[in-house]
Amino acid sequence: MKIIIINGPNLNLLGKREPEIYGNQTFEDYFEILKSKFPQMELHYFQSNIEGELISKIQEVGFSYDGIVLNAAAYTHTSIGIGDAIKAIETPVIEVHISNTFSRESFRHQSFISPNAKGVIIGFGLMSYDLALQSFIK
To answer: pLDDT digit string (tens) for 51-96?
Structure first.
């Protein structure tokens, strides 16, 4: 099973950025843990701060991978283009968020991803990724 985790803007700063919300661990370190927890999966990782690069990656893998775990970060709430890219592909997408977006600013309550996602996991810290990967196990 081939799965990619795609992270959006500022998630390259995990471990440094607002540790009270996002924790102290880098995503790269957590990704190594995920690879060891899910040896039955061929896991890939991509991060970009650029909306168009995220759309291009979704289109690139959207017909050949078994699943996408997507944390579009702030683009979740602003990018119709990412939402449209998910709608256009065949690969199922699980939307994840580290923090509970509904306990934060009201603009974070809107998602252009959710209407086209297989599911949404919000607010479990980095474990949100773990839960998303579990959802692909039959």
So the answer is: 999 999 999 999 999 999 999 998 998 899 999 999 999 999 999 9
Q: Nearest Cα to 30, choosing from 133, 102, 137? A: 133
What CATH number belongs to 2-135? 3.40.50.9100
* Per-domain boundaries in the chain: 2-135
Task: Flag whether the pTM goes above 0.70.
Answer: yes
Judge whether 44 counts as a catalytic residue: no
- Give yes or no: 22 in active site: yes
Joined tokens for residue 57: 């990656």
Choose, from 45, 97, 109, 129, the residue flagged as catalytic: 97
Contact present, 63 and 87 (Cβ < 8 Å)? no
Amino acid (1-letter code) at residue 50 = I
How many angstroms separate the CA atoms of 116 and 76, rounded? 12
Rounded CA separation 43/32 (Å): 10
Q: Where are the alpha helices (DSSP H) in 90-138?
A: 127-135
